[in-house]
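Schema walkthrough. Field components (list of strings):
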Amino acid sequence: MELIYILLISLSAAALSLIPVGRRFAPGVTILGSLAIFLLSLRTALATAAGGEVIAVRDYLSCDSFSGLILLLVAFVGLTAAIFSWGYIATTVETTDDRKIRRYYSRFNLFLLSMLAVPIFSQLALVWIAVELTTLLSVFLVSFESTPQALEAAWKYAVLTCMGASLALIGILLLCWGLSSSSGAAFTWAGLLAASPQIPPSLLYTAFLFILIGFGTKAGLVPMHTWLPDAHSQAPSPICAILSGIETTAVLYCIMRLLPMFPGRAASAAGTWFVIFGLISTGVAAFLLIQAKDYKRLFAFSTVEHMGIILVAVGLGGYAAHLGAMMQIVSHTVTKSLCFFAAGATLMATGTRNIGAIRGLIRISPVAGIFLMAGGLGIAGAPPFAVFLSEFSILRAGIMSGQYLVIGLLTLFIVVAFFGIMQQINRMVFGSAEILLMDERTLSFGRSVNPGRNVPPPTCIIALAITIIPVILFGIYLPEQLYQLLHHAAASLGGGK
Amino acid sequence: MSPDLLVSFLTKLNALTGGVFLLCAFGLVGIRQMLTCLRIYVFQSLLLAISAIILGYFHASIHLFVVAALTIATKVFIIPWVLRQAVGYESYAKREISQAINIPSSLLIAVVIAIFSYYIASPLLASGAGVFEKVNLPIGMASLLIGTYTVTVRGEAVPQLLGILAMENGAFFAGISIAPNLPLIAELAAAFYVLITVLVIGLLAMRIHKMIAKTAVGELMALREE
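Field assembly_structure (string):
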């Protein structure tokens, strides 16, 4: 039943946000709604941690360990983004424009609804629709600031991901064909997995490639990634946190679910595609983020890099690498949302997105400076943060299984990305305080910021503080239940124990 | 009419529909007039509905009749109306000039894409596929991939959107033959999804039109790597 409540709560929060009663109502409803969703998701995830399944409507709405994990992450980022939105939207939108604020929260809740639906749905055709709705419901959140750049980003986002949608659709339909001609099982993840030995391998393989390319466009795999840095840098920061932190991962979840369908040797063929796309994405992103001039773009490229790392880990095969991939999913989600919240705080403090324009952020706004540094170190993979631990376990799993070339390249790209990110963040955070306004490319913020008041709004600080807890904690210690959840999710990808 | 004769007639009618459907995909690559492109798209959707009716009759499947009805309602009536509202008559009646690759080469590339889709569809059809799958699957795939190409080379908002919709038509054209027993809820949701796509992209095109006074989205170049 929890699953139905989760969907209903976010739907009703979207409707309630539109009621024009005071400025505090819409954000309040959104935060309360996402808190309730988070608690329900936590309950669902704990129920699946032992490897069981939570079923609300058989063959339509259900959650196993892997989808429980994704559901929990969506709910976590949704909650923190809702809290961050309160302060961020109140500061950046003109105080007279109440309608715009209400529309923001309504769209926010609808977007969250579609994100929650991706892991909750188990019928493949509906999963496809949920994935595509995440695009369509977030297009106007990307263009929220209504600058020409934001509109351009939203256009690329909508067109490219809709193209990907149609390519994935034919893959899904091919799977449905294979299923209905080999057995009468329902068209769900589990039904498909059970029927996969009877489906002709050539059909499975063609469907897999269509879905990999189609959904891969939305997950930001190189060379279909071109929209991602635009959309993920132009949207308001709380939306960036959801887009970059969890939306890409939720799409990757749909691709990863296909892997156990390939038995024996075919699995290594599918895995090879994962490794190829993963390495290309990681490598290209690592070199592109060196020359990023906009710090939100920098974090967006880092998302492409991390999607690549997860794909490589999944493609390596074997339980250890799959467990590493699951850990990477968790650590990337929490760390990337921290990065975008910190980027939002920086934007509020300085009024520019230009890396070269900011020096000595730690003196301009200590809170933004500290969290940006923590986020930068965290996402680059410095110890003792969560990403370090998960990247380390992926590399170790790869070396244990003897795939030295792949691991060598992956290590090289991770190191390049590390220095790329840290060099840029260092320049911004340390040094004497100054903001250069030399923007000819109008990277500047819509309105001027009062230089006297450089403490972010309290709700933003709360969101940052909540997000940094798992970023540090999971680098040192994994709670037993979470470990069980990751263990069962990794085991569900096949590849033995 | 004897049953055998009827089946062979329906098969031929479906093959004819498929042929014209593919021709429409070529039309969307080769024609510059925006209004004509829209009409071709509407005609292509009508062909999709006809094929769904033929297959529905053959399989005695009520689902496919629902698909046909939904296709006609959304793609023949609502979508052209929404586009007219959102984008405005003047911006899509005009002649489109910008296309990254010129039309003769584009048509040639489209032919190559069509052959390529037969090439990837043939191994799937080897193991005892029915007569309808043999027509619909490769033609659907070809239309899908040609649509991908159309979106890539067109520089205007409406033709790009029509390219995406043609891709969807292609996927559904293949889908009605290979997956006729999708649950009804999935079909309803898919029709709803196509409508939202048009609404969202149409509204976005309108905003871009307001902001830069044209819909040449190919000229939006502020965001890129140096």
